[in-house]
Each structure stands twice: as C-alpha cells, then as structure tokens.
C-alpha cells in the first residue's frame, strides 16, 4: 500500500485578514493563482462565490500531457477568517485533505496550507509521488506564492530596533 504524504507551506501576506480571507474563500480566485499550464478550470455551475460547509466544487485539471482529469472537492469545515478544509470526493488521488489556515500577525496575515494526500496504485503510487507528484505540488505552491506576492505585495519583515548609540 502506498503512503499518506503530507505537504506544508507558510506564506506571510501584507494585507488585512478580511481582504485575504475574501480572496481565498472565493473558489473563482483559485484559477488566478494556479499555473495556466495545468489547464485548471472550475466546471461547477452552482458552486457559489463564497465557501461554505457542504459546498461541492468541480474542476478539470490537466497535470500530465494535457490530459484533462475530473476533480470534485467538498468544503467540509469553515471557520470564518480562521480556516477551511477541502477534501477530494472524486479525482486523481485516493485521498486528499487540504487545510487552509489564516492568522492575523503584525503587518498582515500568515497563511498556512497543510495537505495530506495519497496516490493510488500501491508501490507504483509511491514511485509516482517521488518522481512527479511532489515536484508538481512544489511547482504549484511556488507559483501560488509568487501570484500572491503580485496580488498583495511582498512581505517586508519589520526592522528590529537596535540599542546601539
């Protein structure tokens, strides 16, 4: 049996929590922070513009050789301006659980993504993860990091005062 893998990213965003939450809690915005070469497209007709528990969102995505794959997720947990969770119901993974956390910090928001996923095909799935899936997730989230910087600006750490005279 293949393993359950985990993946975590943290990004600091120099914007108000309400603004960041509004952007990330609207499913339509996901396309703007996903690499175009993945052919990501929301195909749901009734997904709504704000996430809510029980919401179903359907996508087409083409991660390999431009072959379109169907992916359906459900928003299973939402705490306004704190976190939400999407879980795959149908799609390329045998398991997908994605937590999106938002925490107000001095100067903006710390956004943390935690993903647990499992590739089908037993041992072959582990090989596919090592050769392709992990690299693809790195690529997607690096792209998203840059897209968020373009939208919200780059994080500038607060200078630490010195006691030099």
Please give a structural write-up.
By secondary structure, the chain is α+β, with helices and mostly antiparallel strands. It has helices at residues 17-24, 122-152, and strands at 4-13, 41-42, 56-61, 69-79, 83-90, 95-105, 108-118. It is built from two helices and seven strands. The radius of gyration is 17 Å and the shape is globular.
Strand content: 35-45%
Straight-line N-to-C gap: 63 Å
Mean pLDDT: 92
Backbone shape: globular
Uncertain spans: none
As a percent range, the share of helical residues equals 10-25%
Helices and strands in order:
Blueprint: E1 4-13, H1 17-24, E2 41-42, E3 56-61, E4 69-79, E5 83-90, E6 95-105, E7 108-118, H2 122-152
Give descriptors for this structure.
alpha+beta, seven-stranded antiparallel sheet, 36% strand
Write a concise synopsis of the structure shown.
It contains 2 helices and 7 strands; from the N terminus they run βαββββββα.
């Amino acid at each position: 049996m293949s393993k359950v893998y985990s993946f975590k990213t943290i990004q600091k965003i120099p914007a108000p929590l309400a603004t960041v939450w509004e952007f990330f809690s609207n499913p339509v915005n996901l396309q703007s922070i996903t690499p175009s070469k993945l052919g990501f497209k929301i195909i749901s007709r009734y997904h709504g513009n704000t996430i809510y528990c029980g919401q179903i969102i359907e996508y087409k995505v083409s991660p390999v050789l431009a072959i379109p794959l169907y992916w359906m997720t459900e928003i299973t947990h939402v705490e306004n301006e704190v976190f939400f969770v999407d879980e795959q119901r149908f799609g390329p993974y045998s398991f997908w659980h994605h937590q999106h956390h938002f925490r107000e910090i001095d100067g903006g928001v710390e956004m943390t993504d935690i993903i647990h996923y499992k590739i089908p095909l037993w041992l072959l799935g582990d090989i596919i993860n090592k050769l392709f899936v992990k690299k693809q997730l790195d690529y997607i989230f690096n792209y998203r990091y840059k897209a968020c910087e373009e939208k919200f600006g780059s994080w500038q750490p607060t200078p630490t005062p010195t006691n030099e005279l």
